[in-house]
Protein 1
Amino acid sequence: MPIQVLSDDLASRIAAGEVIERPASVVKELVENSLDAGSTRIDVTVMGGGARSISVVDNGQGIPAGELSTAFERFATSKIDESSDLIAIGTLGFRGEALPSISSVARVEAVSRHAESNAGARYLIDFGKLGKVEPAGAPQGTRIEVAGLFQNVPARLKFLGSAGRELSRIQSMLSSLALLDPGVAFSLTADGRERLRTIGSGKLIDAVSGVYGAKVVEQMIEIDEDQLAPFSVDGLVSSPSLNRSNRNYITISVNGRWIQSRRLSYAIEQAYYGFMPERRFPIAVARIKTPLDDVDANVHPAKAEVRFLREDLVYSVVQRAVRGVLSASAPVHELGAGRAAGSIGLLRTPGRTSTSEDFRSLGSGVSPNQRGNENFNQWAEPSTLVEQTRFSDPSTSDLQISQTSQTPKETLPVLRVVGQARETYIVAEGPDGIYLVDQHAVHERIMFEKVKQKFNDNASESQPLLEPVTVDLAPGAMSVVHEHLDELNRVGWGVEEFGANSLIIRSVPASLSTHASGDGAGRVFVGVLDELSEGGSGESWREHMLATIACHSSVRAGQVLSTEECKDLIRQLEKAEHPNTCPHGRPTIVQITVNDLEREFKRRK
Ligand code: ADP
Ligand code: MG
């Protein structure tokens, strides 16, 4: 075929594919237009997962009748003009592509009345075929109805999921927009059933309640940063006991624009390091503010990603802010609190009496042997309980949320040691009940803080090995060693290169020496390297490294402890800065409250 210019019709259908991939993209573009128009109410209605029909009704400033047909032309926009530099963009839309794209692959009816006009207008476009603008009665604002999406693009139709799947994408996307714009009252109705409603009070907490349910709100902690700083973040993050099995509950915006960013999501996850079990994820809404010209919003067809001029700075602002509020409020785990994390206890399940079977399961289902292998992943296994869906459903939400009572400052109750159970747990009593303490987790926490303190003071001690050991490294690991050599030395490792892919360990961090013999030292070192090569930058890998060393410096499950040793561990734990979790985020201590006991033994109702 000779080279030829495509017809407008074909060109716009191809372009539509970039912006409009599925029903959720239609909803996103239309709702963003409504937001740009200053709406305070946006009602979305869909049928058949959006493939049948989508309608978005807003009360924004509306489109003047004389501009209604222009709005559907390619690259027609009121948001930027020739003088704009495409750098500091304050609106959600700016390319003038959404309406023409949508109307080239669907039947669209637009009805709008502009704020300064007392008559409305209607415009119909039938799969790219333009109609005429006609007068129509309408309230102020805009209503756009989209039907038969992709009927003329079979290839795209074929890639749509089931109606349910597409609806869940719409709901998830709209939830994010609703969370990030609490001043706007959103609703979503699908096939006649309301799926989402926020009240538009302007308070983030109300939006979170609308999206995730009122129960969740009780466990959200506010991040409230200095909004005057050029880079800042505010929002709400869940207390560590409230967590989920995937990161879909992390919602991030930059200067009001919802974005998807693996990196910033990771910044938030990392802030929970040591507070939350591994492979569990928080609920979070983080609204980042940067100078407008620090962000390029024009890098992604659906505007879902942005580019930062100083991404590292943004990363650390976010991580520090979240870390800050978490450190200030890490609670003691109450029995049952771990349920959402797939761990323990059914004592609190309503309408069910616990049996001795339940009591046996208190041990979190991990046998001492498995513990001995340091197989902490056990802990992170998803709960058998159905994960709460992202959306509030009053009938299920109660069950899923842990019932930890939050203490404002992380302190340990005064404990009296009763003894050791299963060679794994220290049993103690305290002011409000009975406490079970995981001996390994506790020792890990204590060692972690010691090792970290020494590291920070530059006072780590090193212990020479009687017989140096050789370790073979994974491909690429040598460069990790080189990169982090200073810090490895600083924590007490003395290593020497020995050929291309192996090295000799001559000395180890002193805390390790009594627990790791020659081969053990090699294994710990390889573990540390794994942490280093996985583990990003800055604070977080250092914490991982110190946690690995602490782990291997600690008593194991299955080790018999005398009462004196138990007491000594508890005394040291009392002095720890964050006594309630081990450095990997597992609880060190769980509580059976006096209330629980009285209820279980039917001493009272
Ligand atoms: P963009 O949002 O990039 O400007 P669109 O194709 O999405 O491009 O919209 C084109 C124009 O139509 C917008 O610039 C705006 O002026 C107008 N418009 C679209 N939707 C609305 C709405 N809901 N309310 C008011 N004006 C709208
Ligand atoms: Mg737009």
Note: The pocket of magnesium ion (ligand 2) is lined by residues 29, 32-33, 93, 98 (CB under 6 Å).
Protein 2
Amino acid sequence: MRDVISIGMIGFGTVGSGVVKLLEEEKDLFERRVGAKLVLKKIADLDITTPRVVTPAPEKLTTNVMEVIADPDIDIVVELMGGYEPAHSFLLKAMKAKKHVVTANKALIATRGSDLFQVAEENGVDIGFEASVGGTIPIIKTLKESLVANRIQSIFGIMNGTANFILTKMTDGGEAFEVVLKEAQRLGFAEADPTFDIEGIDTAHKLAIVLSLAYGKNVNFDDIHVEGITGITGQDIAFAKDLGYRIKLLAIAIDRGDAVEARVHPTMIPFGHLLANVNANFNAFHVVGSASGSIFLYGQGAGMMPTASAVMSDVVDIARNIREGISSRVPARSIREADIVDINLRPFEEIRSNYYFRFSAVDRPGVLSKISGILGEKNISISTVIQKGRTRQGAVPIVMTTYKARERDVRAALEVIDRLDIVLDKTVLIRVEDDDL
Ligand code: HSE
């Protein structure tokens, strides 16, 4: 049996520093739990001079990534550099050199996961990516292993801390979008380019990964419908409150039997639901399994030590396998790659949801009946109507919520309504999730 397992790391940023810190501070714990010493042999980064929270011995640091990938003593390569290239090539090279790999690279797993998993299987090595979704929350292992006896009926998740932080502050403190975004960047959980956070792309990357595990299928990232939070205003947050909802950026997967719905968009959810109470930068997943029923996972979706905890859970899993002389015990997506087929995603226009509309209309007799008439013609049934306050001379916000309607019909109705001369601005549409939650 092996008594030392060697690790090499590529990328020595915030999460990398956390991994080094954990390996140093908890080395006895790891040794007891693995039954072998975990030794960090080499760390590669282009910048090895900036001080970090940890100070590895200088001989462990290199600017040459090949000193990690080509070192025959290194068993596990941990990639924490992020981005598509050269991270993708480095992971492929490492696996072809028969090294197990661990990555936190969500964008890469979401868009190139199939290649990486295939190469892992061909080379008989493991690939761990727990840290790619939900930071410290064990959603990957939960789907792959703990819920293996279940067909996954639905997943509703808050998967981006930055967007959740912004919406929480806008809701609870009435703060402006731009001010809160700057604060999230200062606190360090926004991406370098916050567009991915606020436009829902980071959430969609995570949903693509979760979907492919939940259903054991290939997911084409571009088929996921994505809307961000940049259009959310204080006015809609206030109307949502009046209606008993909070607005969250949700990632949604629902198995409808013949197809799976997968979408990311701002969503109104009832105050009382656990997800409505996931605030600040926290992430959460509400998963419904066919046998398990509802389960709820909650925790820090980013940050140095929470993410390092997830990275180390993969490292320990792999180290335990190495000690037992086995690999690929649990396939990357719970199903052998050869058996993976493409997922059947329902076109977004075909989804059915409840809706919130805010019309900006002139305030005169017959306006409400005109709007509701068009909705009725498209088979959209109104559940609530609120009209209060005038925003400017002659214009008034009219808020309506609907019963379940088809996205295609809703779009067609709004197209007609927005062309009416009694409607002064583009209608705001926010989907409402109630009964599917
Ligand atoms: N930018 C991400 C977030 C970091 O805000 O959640 C974790 O993936």
Note: The chain has a mean pLDDT of 95.
